[in-house]
Amino acid sequence: MATSTETVQRPSSAQQSQGEGRFVATWSVERLTPRIGALVHGLDLRNVTARDAPSLLDALVTHKVLFVPGQKLDPDSQVALGRALGELTPSHPVVAGADERHPEIYELDSRDGGTSDEWHTDVTFMARPPMGSILRAVRLPALGGSTTWVDLEQAYDSLSPGLRALADSLEALHDGNREFGDYLAVRRGGEGNSWDGEPVRRLAPARHPVVRVHPVTGARSLFVNPGFTTRIVGVSDAESRGLLDIFFAHLTKPEHMVRHRWSAGDVVLWDNRSTAHYADHDYGDFQRIMHRVTLRGDIPVGPAPVGPLPAAAR
Q1: Which residues fall within 8 angstroms of residue 233, CB to CB, at 6 or more apart?
Q2: Rg value, the chain, Cα
Q3: At the N or C end, where does the chain have fewer CB atoms within 10 A?
């Protein structure tokens, strides 16, 4: 596979404090495909500070998914990394944090139902989904367990012009009840975490544009996913099913993907505004544990404003 490498320069902490302009520390970004995915070399994520955040976030927006091998993060340093890059959300709107000291960490343990073997973009069933995610491998199966990301911007760009124009005009409902409704009602007793300053006591569907405009680049993405998008607003049930079938099949084409086979010490960062992902559940009885933190995002904006949610869907 052809690759290209870009070198990122950043000042040392001492030079930053002295205001000097000479850069002495570098890390490089190796592109894995023309549109999505890059391997980061020479960066210790434990040393990333808020001063480093702009260059790392710029690389994240450009490449959408960053794979950073050989890291030695623990729960404390993973949370610190997230705080350096932005404002952390709670672990999840519904699921409790990994422990009392780390309420920001969402633990995905395959032996406790923590599998993600359906295409999804994180937490789109809330009005303000996360901006990005940071995932760390804690325990990996001996075989299997890869994760694949798709480029939702490329998926939009590769639609036919007529279908792009139609998608630009559509809105969709995203509903978390199928995945998390019972968990909220039974395991959490109807009281989830605080999300955007409000306690989560019910999972009302969120309404988002089918095409999202990236707040940094202005690029458009096909902002639907099989995990949480349940219907297209303003069309019949049959039309909604047909349109979603078309969009879901299109966005998961192999040419929109980058796949990662995990190794111990791997950390992956992704832009939740322009990607969806799928975790292979192909490891049998082996256990897989991952820790994720998410960065607070904004309300998705499309080419046209989103109207009020119909009363029947509330």
Answers
A1: 170, 171, 172, 173, 207, 310, 313
A2: 20
A3: N
What positions carry a catalytic annotation? 120, 122, 277, 292
- Write the pLDDT tens digit of every residue in 111-125: 988 787 899 999 999
The reported pTM is 0.89
Long-range contacts of 164-167 (CB under 8 A, 24+ apart): 164/211, 167/210, 167/211, 167/222, 167/247
Long-range CB pairs of 182-190, under 8 A, 24+ apart, other chains included? 183/94, 183/95, 184/94, 188/94, 188/96
CA distance 126 to 130: 9
pLDDT, tens digit, 9 for 90 and up, residues 141-166: 999 999 999 999 999 999 999 999 99
